[in-house]
Amino acid sequence: MLDVSLATRNPGTEYPFEERQAIAPQKIGGDTVSFDEAILKGNLKAMENGDVEVEGTLKVLAHGRCANCLKPAQVPVEAAYRELFQREGDPEDDEIFTYTGHVVNLEKLAMSYAVMHLPMRMLCREDCEEYVQYLETEDNPDSCQKELPGQHPFAALQQLLEQVSDER
Ligand SMILES: [Zn+2]
Fold first, then answer.
1. What is the pLDDT of residues 18-30, one digit of tens each?
2. CA 131 – ligand 1 centroid, Å
3. What CA–CA distances, in Å, run from 5 to 41, 73, 116, 152?
4. What residues pack around ion ligand 1 (CB closer than 5 A)?
5. pLDDT tens-digit profile of 84-142?
6. Is 108 helix (H, G, I), strand (E, B) or coil?
7. Are 37 and 21 spatial neighbours (Cβ–Cβ below 8 Å)?
8. Would you call 5 exposed, middle or buried from its count of C-beta atoms within 10 A (0-12, 13-18, 19+)?
9. pLDDT at 45
């Protein structure tokens, strides 16, 4: 919640802000993604007509499931925003941001920017995908959180080659 009473009395003047904003869990592609409290930093500025422009950056940690191994995954989300909050806007209109009184509610902005900037596939770790593709040949897609020897893909390949040659 941003108090914009000072800004609306001084149109054109920028006021810095830092806000924490809760974001409700969202259903995305059949999965529920939850969020830690978002941190929004930026500047707000009122227009002559009372609309308020809010611009800055959002940071939030998103919690979901790894697209490969389905284990819990958390992804830091960072986004830059610049939006106009219309004083006389229709609050039912999804295409615009609005505010009433002297308070701008950042919940809709935080939610939409966090969701928009989620990665297409959340992964439990950056190299999970590679490892699962490799493991699928062993029909063992569930082991992707185990550490690879030396964390090097060729080390694992080396190990596989050794196993194969042992079986001969
Ligand atoms: Zn994974």
1. 999 999 999 987 8
2. 9
3. 18, 41, 30, 57
4. 66, 68-69, 124, 128, 144
5. 999 988 888 888 999 999 999 999 999 999 999 999 889 998 888 755 555 555 555 55
6. helix
7. yes
8. exposed
9. 97
- Count of all residues that appear for the chain in the document: 168
What the block records as the tokens of 1 is 């919640």
The Å distance, Cα 72 to ligand 1 centre, comes to: 8
Bridge partners of residue 43, in order along the sequence: 16, 55
Per domain, the residue ranges of the chain are: 2-116, 128-167
- Spatial neighbors of 62 by CB under 8 A, at least 6 apart, are 33, 34, 35, 74, 75, 76, 77, 114, 118, 122
- Write out pLDDT tens, residues 128-162: 875 555 555 555 555 554 444 444 555 555 555 55
Query: How many angstroms does the Cα of residue 34 sit away from the middle of ligand 1?
Result: 17
Query: What's the token pair of residue 106?
Result: 């950042």
21: tokens are 């904003």
**Ligand 1 geometric centre to CA of 56 (Å):** 32
Tokens in use for 105?
Answer: 């509610």
CA distance 31 to 112: 17
